[in-house]
Design a protein that fits this description.
It is a single chain. By secondary structure, this protein is mostly helical. The chain contains 19 helices and no strands. Helix 16 packs antiparallel against helix 17. The radius of gyration is 24 Å and the shape is globular. Keywords: Cell membrane, Membrane, Transmembrane, Transmembrane helix, Transport. Belongs to the BCCT transporter (TC 2.A.15) family. It is a multi-pass membrane protein.
Protein backbone atom coordinates (compact mmCIF):
# COMPACT_ATOMS: atom_id res chain seq x y z
CA UNK A 1 0.00 0.00 0.00
CA UNK A 2 1.48 3.35 -1.06
CA UNK A 3 1.28 6.56 0.87
CA UNK A 4 -1.25 7.85 -1.65
CA UNK A 5 -3.72 5.00 -1.06
CA UNK A 6 -3.37 4.60 2.68
CA UNK A 7 -6.17 5.00 5.22
CA UNK A 8 -7.25 8.64 5.61
CA UNK A 9 -6.51 10.57 8.75
CA UNK A 10 -8.91 12.93 10.44
CA UNK A 11 -7.12 16.02 9.06
CA UNK A 12 -9.14 18.24 6.76
CA UNK A 13 -7.76 19.81 3.56
CA UNK A 14 -7.51 23.13 5.40
CA UNK A 15 -5.09 21.52 7.84
CA UNK A 16 -2.64 20.19 5.25
CA UNK A 17 0.93 20.41 6.55
CA UNK A 18 2.09 20.98 2.96
CA UNK A 19 0.32 21.60 -0.33
CA UNK A 20 0.54 19.14 -3.25
CA UNK A 21 3.06 20.08 -5.98
CA UNK A 22 2.16 22.31 -8.88
CA UNK A 23 1.20 20.01 -11.77
CA UNK A 24 0.32 22.60 -14.40
CA UNK A 25 2.44 25.36 -15.92
CA UNK A 26 0.78 27.24 -18.75
CA UNK A 27 3.07 28.43 -21.54
CA UNK A 28 1.26 30.41 -24.21
CA UNK A 29 1.68 29.09 -27.74
CA UNK A 30 0.29 30.30 -31.04
CA UNK A 31 -2.63 28.29 -32.42
CA UNK A 32 -2.29 28.94 -36.15
CA UNK A 33 0.06 29.99 -38.90
CA UNK A 34 3.83 29.72 -39.07
CA UNK A 35 4.24 29.53 -35.27
CA UNK A 36 1.38 27.10 -34.70
CA UNK A 37 2.25 25.18 -31.51
CA UNK A 38 5.25 27.42 -30.73
CA UNK A 39 5.87 30.17 -28.21
CA UNK A 40 6.47 33.28 -30.28
CA UNK A 41 7.76 35.07 -27.16
CA UNK A 42 10.66 32.58 -27.10
CA UNK A 43 11.11 31.59 -30.74
CA UNK A 44 11.25 35.02 -32.32
CA UNK A 45 13.72 36.68 -29.88
CA UNK A 46 15.96 33.58 -29.94
CA UNK A 47 16.02 33.56 -33.74
CA UNK A 48 16.71 37.30 -33.85
CA UNK A 49 19.63 37.04 -31.39
CA UNK A 50 21.25 34.12 -33.23
CA UNK A 51 20.70 35.80 -36.61
CA UNK A 52 22.30 39.03 -35.35
CA UNK A 53 25.34 37.07 -34.11
CA UNK A 54 25.71 35.48 -37.56
CA UNK A 55 25.34 38.77 -39.44
CA UNK A 56 27.73 40.53 -37.06
CA UNK A 57 30.39 37.89 -37.65
CA UNK A 58 29.93 37.91 -41.43
CA UNK A 59 29.51 41.63 -42.18
CA UNK A 60 31.61 43.17 -39.39
CA UNK A 61 34.35 40.59 -38.75
CA UNK A 62 36.96 43.05 -37.41
CA UNK A 63 34.56 44.73 -35.00
CA UNK A 64 33.16 41.36 -33.95
CA UNK A 65 36.62 39.93 -33.36
CA UNK A 66 37.84 42.90 -31.30
CA UNK A 67 34.67 43.07 -29.22
CA UNK A 68 34.65 39.34 -28.56
CA UNK A 69 38.28 39.40 -27.43
CA UNK A 70 37.65 42.21 -24.95
CA UNK A 71 34.47 40.60 -23.64
CA UNK A 72 36.19 37.23 -23.35
CA UNK A 73 39.11 38.63 -21.33
CA UNK A 74 36.77 40.50 -19.01
CA UNK A 75 34.41 37.59 -18.42
CA UNK A 76 37.11 34.96 -17.96
CA UNK A 77 39.14 37.04 -15.52
CA UNK A 78 36.16 38.40 -13.60
CA UNK A 79 34.11 35.21 -13.34
CA UNK A 80 36.78 32.50 -13.13
CA UNK A 81 36.08 31.94 -9.44
CA UNK A 82 32.33 31.86 -10.12
CA UNK A 83 32.74 29.04 -12.66
CA UNK A 84 35.14 27.05 -10.44
CA UNK A 85 32.98 27.16 -7.31
CA UNK A 86 29.70 26.69 -9.21
CA UNK A 87 30.85 23.44 -10.83
CA UNK A 88 32.25 22.18 -7.50
CA UNK A 89 28.85 22.85 -5.91
CA UNK A 90 27.03 20.99 -8.70
CA UNK A 91 29.19 17.91 -8.10
CA UNK A 92 28.34 17.96 -4.38
CA UNK A 93 24.59 18.37 -5.00
CA UNK A 94 24.47 15.53 -7.55
CA UNK A 95 26.09 12.96 -5.30
CA UNK A 96 24.09 14.06 -2.27
CA UNK A 97 20.84 13.46 -4.18
CA UNK A 98 22.03 10.05 -5.39
CA UNK A 99 23.49 8.78 -2.13
CA UNK A 100 20.71 9.88 0.24
CA UNK A 101 18.45 6.77 0.34
CA UNK A 102 15.04 8.42 0.35
CA UNK A 103 15.78 10.85 -2.49
CA UNK A 104 17.61 8.22 -4.53
CA UNK A 105 14.50 6.01 -4.65
CA UNK A 106 12.26 8.69 -6.16
CA UNK A 107 11.34 7.81 -9.74
CA UNK A 108 11.29 10.12 -12.74
CA UNK A 109 7.73 9.22 -13.60
CA UNK A 110 4.87 7.35 -11.97
CA UNK A 111 5.56 4.88 -9.17
CA UNK A 112 5.79 1.71 -11.29
CA UNK A 113 6.85 3.23 -14.63
CA UNK A 114 9.45 1.34 -16.65
CA UNK A 115 12.33 3.12 -18.51
CA UNK A 116 11.52 4.04 -22.10
CA UNK A 117 14.88 2.91 -23.51
CA UNK A 118 17.20 0.00 -22.77
CA UNK A 119 20.28 0.74 -20.67
CA UNK A 120 22.61 0.37 -23.68
CA UNK A 121 20.55 2.71 -25.89
CA UNK A 122 20.15 5.16 -23.00
CA UNK A 123 23.89 5.33 -22.28
CA UNK A 124 24.68 5.46 -26.02
CA UNK A 125 22.38 8.42 -26.58
CA UNK A 126 23.48 10.46 -23.58
CA UNK A 127 27.15 9.77 -24.35
CA UNK A 128 26.87 10.57 -28.05
CA UNK A 129 25.00 13.79 -27.45
CA UNK A 130 27.13 14.80 -24.49
CA UNK A 131 30.77 14.36 -25.32
CA UNK A 132 31.53 12.07 -28.27
CA UNK A 133 33.05 14.62 -30.66
CA UNK A 134 35.18 16.30 -28.02
CA UNK A 135 36.38 12.92 -26.84
CA UNK A 136 37.70 12.07 -30.30
CA UNK A 137 39.50 15.40 -30.60
CA UNK A 138 40.90 15.55 -27.08
CA UNK A 139 41.64 11.85 -26.50
CA UNK A 140 45.13 12.57 -27.74
CA UNK A 141 45.03 16.37 -27.69
CA UNK A 142 44.55 16.96 -23.99
CA UNK A 143 46.95 14.38 -22.48
CA UNK A 144 49.62 15.57 -24.94
CA UNK A 145 48.95 19.22 -24.10
CA UNK A 146 49.27 18.59 -20.35
CA UNK A 147 52.26 16.36 -21.05
CA UNK A 148 53.93 19.52 -22.35
CA UNK A 149 52.50 22.03 -19.85
CA UNK A 150 50.49 21.71 -16.64
CA UNK A 151 50.66 23.28 -13.16
CA UNK A 152 53.35 20.84 -11.96
CA UNK A 153 55.50 21.68 -14.98
CA UNK A 154 54.90 25.40 -14.47
CA UNK A 155 56.01 25.07 -10.84
CA UNK A 156 59.12 23.17 -11.95
CA UNK A 157 58.41 19.95 -10.01
CA UNK A 158 58.49 17.83 -13.19
CA UNK A 159 60.08 18.29 -16.59
CA UNK A 160 57.92 18.91 -19.66
CA UNK A 161 57.40 15.92 -21.99
CA UNK A 162 59.14 13.57 -19.59
CA UNK A 163 57.93 10.28 -18.13
CA UNK A 164 57.42 12.06 -14.80
CA UNK A 165 55.00 14.54 -16.42
CA UNK A 166 52.59 11.82 -17.56
CA UNK A 167 50.97 11.22 -14.18
CA UNK A 168 50.07 14.86 -13.57
CA UNK A 169 48.90 15.26 -17.17
CA UNK A 170 46.28 12.57 -16.58
CA UNK A 171 45.21 13.98 -13.24
CA UNK A 172 44.24 17.24 -14.97
CA UNK A 173 42.78 15.50 -18.01
CA UNK A 174 40.46 13.43 -15.82
CA UNK A 175 39.49 16.52 -13.83
CA UNK A 176 38.22 18.20 -16.99
CA UNK A 177 36.42 15.17 -18.46
CA UNK A 178 35.02 13.64 -15.29
CA UNK A 179 32.37 14.69 -12.81
CA UNK A 180 32.64 18.41 -13.57
CA UNK A 181 31.15 17.85 -17.02
CA UNK A 182 28.72 15.07 -16.24
CA UNK A 183 27.38 16.43 -12.94
CA UNK A 184 26.60 19.70 -14.71
CA UNK A 185 24.66 17.80 -17.37
CA UNK A 186 23.06 15.50 -14.82
CA UNK A 187 21.79 18.25 -12.56
CA UNK A 188 20.27 20.28 -15.40
CA UNK A 189 18.68 17.13 -16.81
CA UNK A 190 17.36 16.01 -13.43
CA UNK A 191 15.81 19.40 -12.65
CA UNK A 192 13.90 19.22 -15.94
CA UNK A 193 13.05 15.50 -15.85
CA UNK A 194 11.81 15.60 -12.26
CA UNK A 195 9.09 18.19 -12.80
CA UNK A 196 8.27 17.00 -16.32
CA UNK A 197 7.96 13.25 -15.74
CA UNK A 198 6.65 13.35 -12.15
CA UNK A 199 4.51 16.48 -12.23
CA UNK A 200 3.54 16.66 -15.89
CA UNK A 201 5.06 20.10 -16.52
CA UNK A 202 6.28 20.97 -20.03
CA UNK A 203 9.67 19.54 -21.00
CA UNK A 204 11.49 22.87 -21.08
CA UNK A 205 14.09 24.78 -19.10
CA UNK A 206 11.68 27.14 -17.37
CA UNK A 207 9.72 24.24 -15.86
CA UNK A 208 12.75 23.27 -13.78
CA UNK A 209 12.44 26.56 -11.89
CA UNK A 210 8.74 26.13 -11.10
CA UNK A 211 9.48 24.68 -7.62
CA UNK A 212 11.18 28.01 -6.83
CA UNK A 213 9.06 30.58 -8.66
CA UNK A 214 5.76 28.79 -9.27
CA UNK A 215 3.37 30.29 -11.83
CA UNK A 216 5.81 33.14 -12.40
CA UNK A 217 7.58 30.92 -14.92
CA UNK A 218 4.56 31.19 -17.23
CA UNK A 219 5.32 34.82 -18.06
CA UNK A 220 8.22 37.07 -18.98
CA UNK A 221 10.70 35.50 -16.56
CA UNK A 222 10.09 32.08 -18.06
CA UNK A 223 10.44 33.43 -21.59
CA UNK A 224 13.82 34.97 -20.74
CA UNK A 225 15.07 31.70 -19.19
CA UNK A 226 14.14 29.73 -22.33
CA UNK A 227 15.64 32.34 -24.68
CA UNK A 228 18.93 32.26 -22.77
CA UNK A 229 18.86 28.44 -22.93
CA UNK A 230 18.30 28.42 -26.71
CA UNK A 231 21.15 30.87 -27.40
CA UNK A 232 23.51 29.03 -25.01
CA UNK A 233 22.62 25.74 -26.70
CA UNK A 234 23.41 27.00 -30.19
CA UNK A 235 26.73 28.52 -29.08
CA UNK A 236 27.71 25.50 -26.96
CA UNK A 237 26.97 23.04 -29.76
CA UNK A 238 28.84 25.32 -32.18
CA UNK A 239 32.09 24.72 -30.26
CA UNK A 240 31.64 20.96 -30.44
CA UNK A 241 30.65 21.12 -34.10
CA UNK A 242 33.63 23.36 -34.86
CA UNK A 243 36.06 20.90 -33.29
CA UNK A 244 34.39 18.01 -35.09
CA UNK A 245 34.38 19.71 -38.48
CA UNK A 246 38.11 20.50 -38.21
CA UNK A 247 38.90 16.88 -37.33
CA UNK A 248 36.50 15.55 -39.98
CA UNK A 249 38.24 17.59 -42.68
CA UNK A 250 41.68 16.53 -41.38
CA UNK A 251 40.54 12.92 -41.62
CA UNK A 252 39.34 13.35 -45.19
CA UNK A 253 42.79 14.76 -46.01
CA UNK A 254 44.47 11.79 -44.32
CA UNK A 255 42.51 9.25 -46.35
CA UNK A 256 43.33 10.93 -49.65
CA UNK A 257 40.62 13.43 -50.54
CA UNK A 258 43.16 16.05 -51.55
CA UNK A 259 45.44 18.82 -50.32
CA UNK A 260 42.76 21.43 -51.05
CA UNK A 261 41.08 20.51 -47.77
CA UNK A 262 43.79 22.05 -45.56
CA UNK A 263 45.54 25.40 -45.56
CA UNK A 264 49.22 26.03 -44.94
CA UNK A 265 48.68 26.17 -41.16
CA UNK A 266 46.96 22.76 -41.15
CA UNK A 267 43.46 24.12 -40.54
CA UNK A 268 40.46 23.42 -42.78
CA UNK A 269 40.01 25.69 -45.81
CA UNK A 270 36.80 27.71 -46.21
CA UNK A 271 35.67 25.48 -49.10
CA UNK A 272 36.24 22.35 -46.99
CA UNK A 273 34.34 23.86 -44.04
CA UNK A 274 31.35 24.73 -46.22
CA UNK A 275 31.36 21.30 -47.85
CA UNK A 276 31.54 19.51 -44.49
CA UNK A 277 28.76 21.62 -42.97
CA UNK A 278 26.43 21.10 -45.92
CA UNK A 279 26.91 17.34 -45.63
CA UNK A 280 26.77 17.06 -41.84
CA UNK A 281 24.08 19.58 -40.97
CA UNK A 282 21.97 18.43 -43.89
CA UNK A 283 22.10 14.85 -42.64
CA UNK A 284 21.45 15.93 -39.05
CA UNK A 285 18.39 17.94 -40.09
CA UNK A 286 16.96 14.89 -41.83
CA UNK A 287 17.68 12.80 -38.74
CA UNK A 288 16.02 15.40 -36.47
CA UNK A 289 12.85 15.16 -38.56
CA UNK A 290 12.61 11.45 -37.63
CA UNK A 291 12.60 12.16 -33.85
CA UNK A 292 14.44 10.64 -30.87
CA UNK A 293 13.11 7.10 -31.09
CA UNK A 294 14.29 6.49 -34.63
CA UNK A 295 17.19 8.41 -36.21
CA UNK A 296 18.88 9.65 -33.05
CA UNK A 297 18.51 6.31 -31.24
CA UNK A 298 19.98 4.26 -34.06
CA UNK A 299 22.78 6.70 -34.82
CA UNK A 300 23.71 6.69 -31.13
CA UNK A 301 23.87 2.89 -31.09
CA UNK A 302 26.13 3.00 -34.17
CA UNK A 303 28.32 5.61 -32.46
CA UNK A 304 28.79 3.47 -29.38
CA UNK A 305 29.51 0.30 -31.38
CA UNK A 306 32.13 2.03 -33.57
CA UNK A 307 33.67 3.72 -30.51
CA UNK A 308 34.06 0.39 -28.72
CA UNK A 309 35.61 -1.15 -31.85
CA UNK A 310 38.15 1.67 -32.13
CA UNK A 311 38.90 1.50 -28.42
CA UNK A 312 39.43 -2.25 -28.71
CA UNK A 313 41.92 -1.67 -31.51
CA UNK A 314 44.01 0.66 -29.33
CA UNK A 315 43.82 -1.78 -26.43
CA UNK A 316 45.03 -4.69 -28.57
CA UNK A 317 47.65 -3.16 -30.88
CA UNK A 318 48.37 0.07 -29.02
CA UNK A 319 49.74 0.55 -25.52
CA UNK A 320 47.06 -1.49 -23.75
CA UNK A 321 49.05 -2.39 -20.64
CA UNK A 322 50.47 1.10 -20.35
CA UNK A 323 46.98 2.52 -20.82
CA UNK A 324 45.57 0.31 -18.03
CA UNK A 325 48.31 1.54 -15.72
CA UNK A 326 47.52 5.14 -16.60
CA UNK A 327 43.83 4.45 -16.06
CA UNK A 328 44.30 3.00 -12.58
CA UNK A 329 46.77 5.61 -11.39
CA UNK A 330 44.82 8.40 -13.05
CA UNK A 331 41.51 7.46 -11.42
CA UNK A 332 43.20 7.20 -8.01
CA UNK A 333 44.88 10.59 -8.40
CA UNK A 334 41.65 12.11 -9.68
CA UNK A 335 39.53 10.89 -6.76
CA UNK A 336 42.14 11.79 -4.11
CA UNK A 337 42.70 15.29 -5.49
CA UNK A 338 39.12 16.00 -6.63
CA UNK A 339 38.08 18.17 -3.64
CA UNK A 340 41.28 20.22 -3.72
CA UNK A 341 41.50 20.62 -7.50
CA UNK A 342 37.80 21.41 -7.81
CA UNK A 343 38.08 24.25 -5.30
CA UNK A 344 41.54 25.59 -6.20
CA UNK A 345 41.63 29.03 -7.76
CA UNK A 346 45.17 29.97 -8.74
CA UNK A 347 46.42 33.42 -7.78
CA UNK A 348 49.16 35.64 -9.17
CA UNK A 349 51.26 35.54 -6.00
CA UNK A 350 52.42 31.90 -6.13
CA UNK A 351 56.18 32.32 -6.02
CA UNK A 352 56.61 34.16 -9.31
CA UNK A 353 54.78 31.57 -11.40
CA UNK A 354 51.31 32.70 -10.39
CA UNK A 355 50.55 34.52 -13.63
CA UNK A 356 51.38 31.41 -15.67
CA UNK A 357 49.20 29.26 -13.38
CA UNK A 358 46.31 31.72 -13.64
CA UNK A 359 46.55 31.76 -17.43
CA UNK A 360 46.72 27.96 -17.58
CA UNK A 361 43.57 27.66 -15.47
CA UNK A 362 41.74 30.23 -17.59
CA UNK A 363 42.75 28.45 -20.82
CA UNK A 364 41.80 25.00 -19.56
CA UNK A 365 39.67 24.53 -16.44
CA UNK A 366 37.61 27.72 -16.65
CA UNK A 367 37.12 27.26 -20.40
CA UNK A 368 35.88 23.72 -19.81
CA UNK A 369 33.47 24.73 -17.03
CA UNK A 370 32.01 27.42 -19.30
CA UNK A 371 31.78 24.92 -22.17
CA UNK A 372 29.96 22.34 -20.07
CA UNK A 373 27.54 24.99 -18.78
CA UNK A 374 26.83 26.28 -22.30
CA UNK A 375 26.31 22.70 -23.45
CA UNK A 376 24.12 21.85 -20.43
CA UNK A 377 20.70 23.10 -21.64
CA UNK A 378 21.03 20.97 -24.75
CA UNK A 379 22.48 17.85 -23.12
CA UNK A 380 20.35 18.26 -19.98
CA UNK A 381 17.13 18.59 -21.98
CA UNK A 382 18.09 15.61 -24.13
CA UNK A 383 18.97 13.45 -21.12
CA UNK A 384 15.71 14.46 -19.44
CA UNK A 385 13.80 13.46 -22.58
CA UNK A 386 15.28 9.94 -22.66
CA UNK A 387 15.38 9.22 -18.88
CA UNK A 388 11.73 8.78 -18.02
CA UNK A 389 11.08 5.86 -15.68
CA UNK A 390 14.48 5.77 -13.95
CA UNK A 391 15.08 6.44 -10.26
CA UNK A 392 17.19 9.41 -9.20
CA UNK A 393 19.96 7.07 -8.01
CA UNK A 394 19.99 5.09 -11.26
CA UNK A 395 19.85 8.32 -13.24
CA UNK A 396 22.69 9.99 -11.34
CA UNK A 397 25.04 7.03 -11.39
CA UNK A 398 24.22 6.31 -15.03
CA UNK A 399 24.74 9.90 -16.18
CA UNK A 400 27.84 10.65 -14.08
CA UNK A 401 29.79 7.44 -13.45
CA UNK A 402 29.38 5.50 -16.71
CA UNK A 403 30.26 8.30 -19.17
CA UNK A 404 33.09 9.56 -16.93
CA UNK A 405 34.59 6.07 -16.80
CA UNK A 406 34.27 5.67 -20.58
CA UNK A 407 36.03 9.02 -21.07
CA UNK A 408 38.80 7.96 -18.69
CA UNK A 409 39.28 4.63 -20.46
CA UNK A 410 39.33 6.34 -23.85
CA UNK A 411 41.82 9.00 -22.77
CA UNK A 412 44.08 6.40 -21.13
CA UNK A 413 44.10 3.96 -24.05
CA UNK A 414 44.24 6.37 -26.96
CA UNK A 415 46.18 9.19 -25.33
CA UNK A 416 48.44 6.72 -23.51
CA UNK A 417 49.37 5.11 -26.83
CA UNK A 418 50.27 8.52 -28.29
CA UNK A 419 52.38 9.45 -25.26
CA UNK A 420 54.25 6.13 -25.19
CA UNK A 421 55.01 6.43 -28.90
CA UNK A 422 56.53 9.85 -28.19
CA UNK A 423 58.44 8.70 -25.08
CA UNK A 424 59.87 5.70 -26.91
CA UNK A 425 61.03 7.86 -29.82
CA UNK A 426 58.94 5.93 -32.34
CA UNK A 427 56.83 8.98 -33.19
CA UNK A 428 59.83 11.35 -33.48
CA UNK A 429 57.55 14.32 -32.71
CA UNK A 430 55.05 13.47 -35.46
CA UNK A 431 52.17 13.27 -32.97
CA UNK A 432 52.98 16.00 -30.47
CA UNK A 433 53.81 18.50 -33.23
CA UNK A 434 50.65 17.81 -35.24
CA UNK A 435 47.60 20.10 -35.04
CA UNK A 436 45.15 18.96 -32.37
CA UNK A 437 42.59 17.98 -35.03
CA UNK A 438 45.20 15.72 -36.69
CA UNK A 439 46.82 14.09 -33.63
CA UNK A 440 44.55 11.05 -33.55
CA UNK A 441 45.28 10.34 -37.22
CA UNK A 442 48.99 10.95 -36.64
CA UNK A 443 48.93 8.38 -33.82
CA UNK A 444 47.32 5.82 -36.14
CA UNK A 445 49.90 6.58 -38.84
CA UNK A 446 52.78 5.87 -36.44
CA UNK A 447 51.13 2.85 -34.82
CA UNK A 448 49.87 0.98 -37.91
CA UNK A 449 51.07 0.11 -41.39
CA UNK A 450 50.04 2.65 -44.06
CA UNK A 451 47.31 0.40 -45.48
CA UNK A 452 45.73 -0.41 -42.12
CA UNK A 453 46.10 3.19 -40.91
CA UNK A 454 44.18 4.32 -43.98
CA UNK A 455 41.30 1.95 -43.20
CA UNK A 456 41.17 2.84 -39.50
CA UNK A 457 41.38 6.56 -40.28
CA UNK A 458 38.37 6.04 -42.54
CA UNK A 459 36.58 4.42 -39.57
CA UNK A 460 37.37 7.48 -37.45
CA UNK A 461 35.98 9.74 -40.19
CA UNK A 462 32.75 7.72 -40.25
CA UNK A 463 32.57 7.80 -36.45
CA UNK A 464 33.11 11.56 -36.44
CA UNK A 465 30.40 11.96 -39.03
CA UNK A 466 27.85 9.99 -37.00
CA UNK A 467 28.81 11.84 -33.80
CA UNK A 468 28.48 15.20 -35.55
CA UNK A 469 25.10 14.26 -37.00
CA UNK A 470 23.88 12.97 -33.63
CA UNK A 471 24.98 16.09 -31.77
CA UNK A 472 23.54 18.47 -34.34
CA UNK A 473 20.20 16.72 -34.75
CA UNK A 474 19.80 16.35 -30.98
CA UNK A 475 20.50 20.07 -30.55
CA UNK A 476 18.05 21.03 -33.27
CA UNK A 477 15.36 18.83 -31.73
CA UNK A 478 15.97 20.24 -28.23
CA UNK A 479 15.90 23.87 -29.41
CA UNK A 480 12.62 23.17 -31.18
CA UNK A 481 11.27 21.53 -28.03
CA UNK A 482 12.09 24.61 -25.94
CA UNK A 483 10.50 26.87 -28.55
CA UNK A 484 7.49 24.56 -28.69
CA UNK A 485 6.80 24.87 -24.92
CA UNK A 486 8.01 21.33 -24.29
CA UNK A 487 6.28 19.61 -27.23
CA UNK A 488 8.93 17.37 -28.83
CA UNK A 489 6.56 15.56 -31.17
CA UNK A 490 4.80 18.49 -32.83
CA UNK A 491 7.89 20.21 -34.20
CA UNK A 492 7.26 21.84 -37.56
CA UNK A 493 9.65 20.99 -40.36
CA UNK A 494 10.43 24.59 -41.33
CA UNK A 495 11.57 25.41 -37.81
CA UNK A 496 13.89 22.38 -37.85
CA UNK A 497 15.29 23.63 -41.16
CA UNK A 498 15.83 27.11 -39.72
CA UNK A 499 17.82 25.90 -36.73
CA UNK A 500 19.84 23.52 -38.87
CA UNK A 501 20.80 26.35 -41.22
CA UNK A 502 21.44 28.72 -38.30
CA UNK A 503 23.76 26.23 -36.61
CA UNK A 504 25.67 25.72 -39.87
CA UNK A 505 26.07 29.49 -40.32
CA UNK A 506 27.26 30.04 -36.74
CA UNK A 507 29.89 27.31 -37.07
CA UNK A 508 30.90 28.22 -40.60
CA UNK A 509 31.13 31.98 -40.12
CA UNK A 510 33.14 31.68 -36.92
CA UNK A 511 35.50 29.01 -38.29
CA UNK A 512 36.17 30.86 -41.53
CA UNK A 513 36.52 34.32 -40.03
CA UNK A 514 38.17 33.61 -36.69
CA UNK A 515 38.87 29.92 -36.35
CA UNK A 516 37.84 27.74 -33.43
CA UNK A 517 38.98 30.43 -30.99
CA UNK A 518 36.21 32.74 -32.19
CA UNK A 519 33.60 30.06 -31.48
CA UNK A 520 35.09 29.40 -28.05
CA UNK A 521 34.99 33.07 -27.14
CA UNK A 522 31.38 33.44 -28.28
CA UNK A 523 30.42 30.34 -26.32
CA UNK A 524 32.05 31.59 -23.11
CA UNK A 525 30.08 34.84 -23.39
CA UNK A 526 26.84 32.94 -24.03
CA UNK A 527 27.47 30.59 -21.12
CA UNK A 528 27.63 33.34 -18.48
CA UNK A 529 23.91 34.20 -18.24
CA UNK A 530 22.94 30.53 -18.28
CA UNK A 531 25.36 29.79 -15.43
CA UNK A 532 23.04 31.76 -13.12
CA UNK A 533 20.10 29.72 -14.38
CA UNK A 534 22.03 26.54 -13.57
CA UNK A 535 22.54 27.68 -9.98
CA UNK A 536 18.82 28.38 -9.65
CA UNK A 537 18.09 24.91 -11.10
CA UNK A 538 20.29 23.32 -8.44
CA UNK A 539 18.40 25.09 -5.67
CA UNK A 540 15.09 24.26 -7.35
CA UNK A 541 15.65 20.50 -7.64
CA UNK A 542 16.87 20.27 -4.04
CA UNK A 543 13.75 22.09 -2.88
CA UNK A 544 11.49 19.90 -5.06
CA UNK A 545 12.98 16.67 -3.68
CA UNK A 546 12.89 17.80 -0.03
CA UNK A 547 9.28 18.98 -0.32
CA UNK A 548 8.23 15.72 -2.02
CA UNK A 549 9.83 13.71 0.80
CA UNK A 550 7.83 15.80 3.27
CA UNK A 551 4.68 15.19 1.20
CA UNK A 552 5.30 11.44 1.22
CA UNK A 553 5.73 11.57 4.99
CA UNK A 554 2.30 13.18 5.39
CA UNK A 555 0.52 11.18 2.71
CA UNK A 556 0.20 14.09 0.27
CA UNK A 557 0.60 13.02 -3.40
CA UNK A 558 3.83 13.91 -5.19
CA UNK A 559 3.03 13.03 -8.82
CA UNK A 560 0.58 14.32 -11.39
CA UNK A 561 -1.24 10.97 -11.40
CA UNK A 562 -1.49 10.99 -7.62
CA UNK A 563 -2.94 14.49 -7.61
CA UNK A 564 -5.60 13.49 -10.16
CA UNK A 565 -6.84 10.64 -7.96
CA UNK A 566 -6.47 12.48 -4.65
CA UNK A 567 -9.54 13.21 -2.57
CA UNK A 568 -7.97 16.10 -0.69
CA UNK A 569 -7.40 14.22 2.57
CA UNK A 570 -4.12 13.53 4.37
CA UNK A 571 -3.02 9.89 4.55
CA UNK A 572 -0.53 8.61 7.10
CA UNK A 573 2.38 6.40 6.11
CA UNK A 574 1.51 2.70 6.54
Amino acid sequence: MTSETAEPSSSSPDELPIEPPMVDLHISTHDSGFYDGFSREVSIPAKVIVSLIIMWAIFFPVSAGDTLQVANSTIISSFSGWYVYLVASLIAVCFALAIFPRSGRLRLGSVDEEPEFSFFSWVSMLFGAGIGIGMLTYSTGEPLAHFANNPDIIRGTVEAQSAEAVRSSYMWTFLHWGFGAWCTYALVGLAIAYVSHRRGLPLTIRSSLAPLFGKGMSGLSGHIVDIVAVVATILGVAVTMGLGVQQFVAGLHRIGFGDWLLGQDGSATPVAIVMALVLLVGASTISALSGVGRGIKWLSNINMTLSLALLGLFALVGSGIYGLKLLGVGIWDYIVTLPENSLTLFGSDEGGVGDALVQWQLDWSVFYWAWWIAFAPFVGMFIARISRGRTIREYMFGVTLVPSLVCFIWMAMVGGTAIELELSGAAEGAIVNAAISDQLYATLAVLLSPEIALVVSGLVVVLLMTYLITSADSAILIVNTINGAGDDEGSRRYHIFFWGIALAFVVGSMLILGGIDAIRITMIIGALPFSFVVLAMAVSIVKAVIYDLIRKKHGVPTTAEGCEDWDGKVYPIQ
